[in-house]
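Dear support,

We are seeing what looks like truncated structure output for some complexes. This example has two components. We would appreciate it if you could run it in full and send us the complete token output so we can diff it against ours.
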Amino acid sequence: MKMELIQPFINAADAVLAEGLQCSTTVGSLSMEEEAYRRKGVAALIWVTGDIEGRIILDLDPQTAVRVASKFAGTELPESDTLVRETVCELANEVTGNAITSLNDQGFHFRVHPPILHTEDGSKSSEDTEALVICVETASGSVFMNIALRYNRRRQGERAVAAGQ
Amino acid sequence: MEQFAPVKRSKDGQPVRYLVVDDSVFARKNLVRIIETFGGQLAGEAGDGATAITEYERTSPDIVLMDITMPQMEGIEAAEKIVRQHPEARIVMVSSVGYQENIVAALQRGARHFVQKPVKPEVLYEVIKYVLGEDATVASAAGAGA
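Here is the complete output from our reference environment:
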């Protein structure tokens, strides 16, 4: 996966989390995902389609999710509160939306789909899709982003044909 | 959260009434908290574009804050349908997806302005005042943040 696709997600996560949590953030680690995806706690999944296709998962362990949601809500929330899951979904939406905005302004064409709560484990990447896991450290805990994107060959082909005409 | 000088309707001095449209309950709650700091009042809420249209008819809000990416009917389509029926409607798109093509599409279909998520209250406050224009007055408030 090319860095030109990944950097906007890192920048967006940094901006959204720092603004929302009112703290500085750091990228703790970057690693390739080779096994089937195992969620850590409360996870939201967003599909993107267009020139590049794939999915982004934002994943927080349960305690971190509660701390982050409570910070956003301005009040202590219990782990069972639906607002905790809603917060993770909206964070995924904001991070992905901001990253896609940056990529679209660079000439890519994507469509972002609404976030869904990711409840199943073992959603393995397809053969030609690389998954990158980015850990963003915040004052409320670690936020993991699992990014699996691939170039849409059909769209690339259509563009090549159009360019040749 | 920071408090702003209340924005009132010029015609009757009443609080500005907002329709908040977003499929995320979290995002709606967040927007409601923000508009309350502007002295605004919630007229209604909707979680998708189709419900937004019926809620607009029911509540006749002064301002609509409309997300773009939503299930069933997206925000830009809903904005177009509302403006077709109510050319005076003031719709501000509020979305995390803020690339130029999307903004232009929203404005061409009748939206008055665009605010990118995460929403900064001070940015939304200025946009609301701009969109309402002479139909709003900013009340003086001791200790107001803006």
